[in-house]
Amino acid sequence: MPKKLLIVDDEASIVKGLRFTLLQDGYEVDTAYDGQEALDKAAENTYDLIVLDVMLPVVDGLHVCQTIRETSSVPIIMLTAKGEDMDKILGLEYGADDYVTKPFNILELKARIKSILRRTNTPREETAAAAGAESTQIGELEVSAENRSVYIRGKEINLTAKEFDLLYLFISNPGKVYSRENLLEMIWKYDYLGDLRTVDVHIRRLREKVEEDPSHPKYIHTKWGVGYYFAEK
């Protein structure tokens, strides 16, 4: 079954070009030209990935991203202009998984799409088998590899694909310190062209979701000047 993508941009030439090349690569592609149309299509369909421009008419891309994120962890790649605040786009307020700055190289965007889909579409059974355990619990935090879900005191926490991958890597290797470069290589799985603060933003966002007091984390700790690690069991 082909992967289904949604391309959202108000520039017809960009949408047409992306749709053509992605169809050639075997994807199923829907398109939208404003934020409300994107929200309507996201509500009516299930997508494997969304490419979403920040600057959109009717409803802006950041609001679209935030609204989708309330109910779905579908991977979202934002198309941004230079100078946009990446902390906000990738962080707590909106929760995009990645971004590409305009004007962009279509080969780069395709590589990002392929990488994210390869990482997020591992069969759940294979993920669980590779982990060697169906679920792991530390304190009030329970992480299930089988269905990629996270619970705190029995309440499910909605994580994006990258947030789950980060948390599962940490919880599977308690006490091991990972540098930001390590995490980019292991979680993003390609030569990331952005800056290292991408990791910091995702860690901060993950802490906001799983820590009772993110400023004094119980689970995900910082080893200053080195990287991040999960508390020993």
**Which CATH top level class of the largest domain fits?**
Alpha Beta
The H-level CATH homologous superfamily of the largest domain, spelled out, is Response regulator
Largest sheet descriptor: 5 strands, parallel
By CATH, the topology of the largest domain is Rossmann fold
Structure class? alpha/beta
Question: How do the SSEs run, as a string of H and E?
Answer: EHEHEHEHEHHEEEEHHHEE
Q: In DSSP terms, counting alpha (H) and pi (I) runs of 4 or more, how many helices?
A: 9
Give the CA-CA distance, first to last residue. Answer: 41 Å
Oligomer: single chain
Low-confidence stretches: 122-132
Notes on the structure:
The chain is α/β, with parallel strands linked by helices and 233 residues long. It folds into two domains: 4-120, Response regulator (Rossmann fold); 124-230, Arc Repressor Mutant, subunit A (Orthogonal Bundle), CATH 1.10.10. It has nine helices and eleven strands. A five-stranded parallel beta sheet has the order 2-1-3-4-5, with helices on both faces. A four-stranded antiparallel beta sheet has the order 6-7-8-9, with helices on one face. Strands 10-11 form a two-stranded antiparallel ribbon. It is globular.
